[in-house]
Amino acid sequence: MQRELALARSTPKTIVSKSKLMAELETVRRKGYATAEEEQYLGVRALSAPIFDATRSLRAAVSLNGSLDEPAWRDPQALVELIDEAAADISKRARFG
């Protein structure tokens, strides 16, 4: 019998259901980046993009975090583009890809 691991709740928005977490991970894979709004800390939003090596294996991630009140969050698509560019640049400079 397989036992389900308990996920710790940090805020009311923390994903604690394994099925919801798996669905969220699939969304992240499809979109190519991750977002989190108040999942770890109230009032904080995060945006992350993966860093891959030359074989397209995940090596790390770059993340942008800040207060929900920051004006930069008004244009989320611009931030997605910036974080994607940063991840690609890090991969290139680190000779990962």
Give keywords.
2 helices, 97 residues, Beta-Lactamase, alpha+beta
Could you describe the 3D structure shown?
With 97 residues, the chain is α+β, with helices and mostly antiparallel strands. The chain is built from two helices and three strands, in the order αβββα. The protein has helices at residues 18-31, 76-93; strands spanning 34-37, 44-52, 58-67. A hairpin with a 5-residue loop joins β2 (44-52) and β3 (58-67). It is globular, with a radius of gyration of 15 Å. The N and C termini lie far apart (41 Å). The mean pLDDT is 90.
Concise overview:
The protein has two helices and three strands.
Ends: how far apart? 41 Å
The dominant shape is globular
Strand order of the largest sheet: 1-2-3
What is the CATH architecture assignment?
Answer: 2-Layer Sandwich
Secondary-structure-based class equals alpha+beta
Give the proportion of residues in helices: 25-40%
Order of helices and strands: HEEEH
Which radius of gyration do the C-alpha atoms yield?
A: 15 Å
Strand content: 15-25%
Mean pLDDT: 90
**Biggest sheet character:** 3 strands, antiparallel
List the uncertain runs.
none
Q: Can you tell me the CATH superfamily?
A: GAF domain
Count of DSSP H/I helices: 2
User: Number of folding domains?
Assistant: 1
Question: What's the number of extended β-strand segments?
Answer: 3
The first-level CATH class name = Alpha Beta
CATH topology: Beta-Lactamase
